[in-house]
Amino acid sequence: MFTSEPLTKRGFLAGAAGSVGALAVGGGAALLPARAQAQASTQTLITNVRVFDGKSDALIEATSVLIEGNRIKAIAPNLDAPADAVRIDGGGRVLMPGLTDMHTHLVWNVGPFELLGAHADYLGALTLLDAEATLMRGYTSIRDIGGGIQGVIQAIDEGRFPGPRIQSANAAITMTAGHGDFRNRNVPVRAFGGPTESELQRLGFVYHADGVPEMLSAARENMRQGANFLKIFVGGAVSGIYDPLDIAEYSPEEIAATAGEAERWNTYLAVHSYTDRSTRIALEQGAKSIEHGNLMSEATMELLVEKGAWLSTQTALFMSELPDGFSDAQKDRQKKAAEGLDNMMTLAKQYGAKIALSSDMVGSLETKAEQLKEFTWRTQWFSNLEILKQTTSQNAQLWAMSGPRNPYGDTPIGVIEPEAYADLLIMEGNPLEDTSVLTRPEANLNVIMKDGKIYKNTLE
């Protein structure tokens, strides 16, 4: 049976060297013997649970769930299974799909200025810790929306390290002086004699691109590296250095070129944007996922709905304190972005926007734990049921937009139904009545299953 013992207790960091990807892949098979072992049976029978299936408005009472391999096979009262099947008696507890988060940065676990001098292997070690912690908080699928973690994804998918299922944009694309440009002012850009790579580009966080030809090159390089969708910064940022919150980044032509490239790869373009102007331009040029959007107007919200684009929303990012290492200017921009949150959420509900639940917590492993505050902060605008649907079946629709670029195929996530991935949680308490039960995973999550494998089970 899989355990929840932290990786650090098994000493996997000793002797770590190389890039984030190299750290993740190298020698992992011997590092997690307990986790890497397959279950004795290919079937797991869970009985005596009340099920939130990700779509319905109420719990399915007193039923059972049969898992075969990594998929759900059946949901019905009084199911049976072979004698060698793993059996879990839920004791009347609630079972629901694993949580999903559509805006994360697994590799960003230090302050913004610490990144510039960080060793790649150190960042890789923290990324693996964050991946495990994310899974143990109940998140079984996430979108990583800026940062080169292809090696970490490979290691997780191979079963060498515990972590959620991940779709990745690979490196976010930034213009000179844009959100992803953290170069010192004394370092000229490459067009004026500077180095060909910035520190963040060398670490895989960003690609620098100016003008349509470079946008296309950056987009194509991301796809060559295995990205599942594309991400660019089209407006000012909270955590940026040179870009005030009010500016529009990238020209319409540059955005349209990147959106067109994503479409040719049968996937989509996600954009970082806060202001009304930058959000509207991005939507007009073909962006399909707006990350943040806090300061958009009613007319732009109407355009977003008309275009069928997604609004990837965060609350804890703006309502929590930024960790040490962020400047006063960055904290001031966070405050301005937070001021638009109520209007954006209200408009999104009014116009029936497609709302994704995400967190965007960065800066430290401790800050990342506040990811779970999304389930309580959002109650200012949404019912418990709406929030649970956002983190399950609604997020799953955005997940599916990567189409043939989705490395996990068209198997559904975020739902409890036959042929969906067997990602599920059994818990103390009923999140339909009180979402705060999800904010205390150590105490309240009895079972965490991802891909049919059990990573935590306190009901044995």
Automatic annotation (TrEMBL):
InterPro entries: Amidohydro-rel, Metal-dep_hydrolase_composite, Metal_Hydrolase, Metallo-dep_Hydrolase, OTAase-like, TAT_signal. It comes from the Bacteria. GO terms for molecular function: hydrolase activity, acting on carbon-nitrogen (but not peptide) bonds. Pfam families: Amidohydro_1. Residues 94-454 form the Amidohydrolase-related domain. This is Imidazolonepropionase. It comes from Rubrimonas cliftonensis.
